[in-house]
């Protein structure tokens, strides 16, 4: 997820870049149901636009 969000924003987490397209705005919790049980995933939020992981 970090690589996908870095590509969407134009910079990695904590990285300064004048060409940055969006900033991160914390995380939202999402429960992911698996056969082994429930996994809590922190999904990064963006100030502009949106991000949703491709594997969901």
TrEMBL record:
Required for the transposition of the insertion element. It comes from the Bacteria. Residues 1-28 are annotated as: Disordered. GO terms for biological process: DNA transposition. Keywords: DNA recombination, DNA-binding, Transposition. GO terms for molecular function: DNA binding; transposase activity. InterPro entries: Transposase_mutator. This is Transposase, Mutator family. Belongs to the transposase mutator family.
């Amino acid at each position: 997820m970090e690589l996908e969000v870095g590509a969407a924003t134009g910079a990695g987490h904590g990285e300064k870049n004048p060409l940055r397209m969006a900033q991160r705005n914390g995380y939202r919790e999402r429960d992911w149901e698996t056969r082994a049980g429930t996994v809590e995933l922190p999904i990064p939020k963006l100030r502009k636009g949106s991000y949703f992981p491709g594997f969901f």
